[in-house]
Structure formats: structure tokens, C-alpha cells
Amino acid sequence: MKEFPDVIAWSIPAFLLLIVLERVSYLLHRDDDEVGYGGADTATSLAMGLGSVFTDLLWKVPIAAAYALLYALTPLRVAEVWWTWPLILLAQDFFYYWSHRGHHVIRILWASHVVHHSSQRFNLSTALRQPWTGLTSWLFYIPLILIGVHPAVVAFCGSVNLLYQFWIHTERIDKMPRWYEFVFNTPSHHRVHHASQGGYLDRNFGGILIVWDRLFGSFAPERERCVYGLTKNVGSYNPVRVAFHEYASIGRDLRSAASWRQRAGHLFRAPGWQPTPGALRAAGPARPDGRTSSAPG
């Protein structure tokens, strides 16, 4: 079985060290427009990250089995030589964009991804606030398997993508050089992605590259101060509630639905969708904003 180093696991000590250094930098100086750190919030983010390490081990087994089956069935093979690696990483980043976008506009997928957006702060510890139910992203990478990319290579490129995204969860970096901002995802772009105000909702889905957002109409530059979190925040630092609050909300909506069509809407339409215009969420009009949670605050 082909194996590659687990770059995320090996990077955990560096993650923690950088979080400490960023926290110290806030103690020494903080600008008025930066929200900084909060003890309970940071503890929740770290707890969610630690929990995801263990739950990912559980999800890894069925996902690896499905990938292995698909890889065995396809006659295609992509050679792993020096010039194919950048192309594979580019393709992985392309499918990451669509996976990320899908997890914002399809509610049952958002129920998992909402965890990462549940903090009202934005710092390096927020990067570790990961879901415990990550069983859906793998579907978006099936095309890579079917064209002959080895499953282990897909997993490795995914880890590289996530590793890159760690450093962009910060307010301490204002803007990168203009050329870099045009091509790559940066802290400025990702602050927009985590913001909850209307003009920033459902923007900047890119992983490593921001060019996908520019190409597919989901890019927004950072122009005003970002307000982080959800349009209706969870209101709890309990990791279990943070992990499952949107699933509980979906369950309540399914029980109250009057038809199977409505049930399908609650599962597969955008977060905030309601079957009639008069039954809107307290968070605001139903829209595919990727931020609306019906969990009580």
C-alpha cells in the first residue's frame, strides 16, 4: 500500500507554537479592529481540533475502502513523476474549491462545515476548529480517482492544501504583495470568507489558489471590517453542541416538515431555506448564505 507522511500530524507541534506566538503578539500589541483571542473560544477550537484527529481515523476506513475500489475499477493511471505532481495538486485544489462551495450551499453538508465557522474570533486557533463528521468531502475528489490518481496521492495533496490554509487564519497579516493576492489565498481573502455580513457571505472558497473564485464569480475583496461567526451564532462553547447543533436543527425541521419534498429541501437546499416565504428563520431571509443556523443561541 502506497504511503506518504501525514503532514498534518507532523505539523501539530508547529501549529501550537505559532498559536502561542500569535497570542503573545496580541498581548504586546493589538489594533482596534482586531478581535484577538478569548480563553473559552480558544479552548473550544483546540478541543474541536483534537476531537477531529480521532474522528478522522474512523472516517478514514470507509473512505479509503471506497477510493480503493474505484481505483481498482478504473483502467486509467496517472504516473507519479515530477511534472505530474504540480498538476495533481492543482486539480486537487480545483475540486477543493467545489467541495468547499458545496459545503456552504447544501445544508446537510453545511451541518458539518458550520463547525469551522462557529467562532466569532479569527486567529490561528480557529484553523484547528474542525468538524467531527467529515464524511462528505471525499465525494468531490472521485473524479481524481477515476482518472487514475492513486488514493494516497489524493489524500497527501489534501493534507498539503489544509497545511497551507493554517497560516491564513490570522488578523496579524494585513495584505500580501499585490501579485500574491491576485493568485493565492491570503489572510485578507480568508477573513472575508469567515465574515458574517451580507456582502461577504459565500465568498472566497479557494484553498491554496484564489483564482478559482475569480473565475467562478465568488470572489470578494476585503473592504470593510469583518464580523466573524454565523448570522445566528451557536451561543455555546460546549464542543459537543458546536459539533452537532446544525444536525439537531435539521432533525427538528425534518420532524415538522409536511411532505417529503419539504424534507428534501431541508436536507439539500441552502442553509436558511424554508418551504414558505412566511416561515423565515430569525437569522434573516432564506438565502444560500452559508451562515444561517437554526439552532437556538
TrEMBL record:
Record has Transmembrane helix as a keyword: yes
Domain Fatty acid hydroxylase stretches: 86-218
UniProt keywords, alphabetically: Lipid metabolism, Membrane, Oxidoreductase, Transmembrane, Transmembrane helix
Region (Disordered) residue spans: 274-297
Short name of one Pfam family: FA_hydroxylase
InterPro entries from the UniProt entry: Fatty_acid_hydroxylase, Sterol_desaturase/TMEM195
UniProt GO molecular function: glyceryl-ether monooxygenase activity; iron ion binding
Low complexity biased stretches: 277-287
Recorded GO CC terms: endomembrane system; membrane
Protein name according to UniProt: Sterol desaturase family protein
Organism of derivation: Micromonospora orduensis
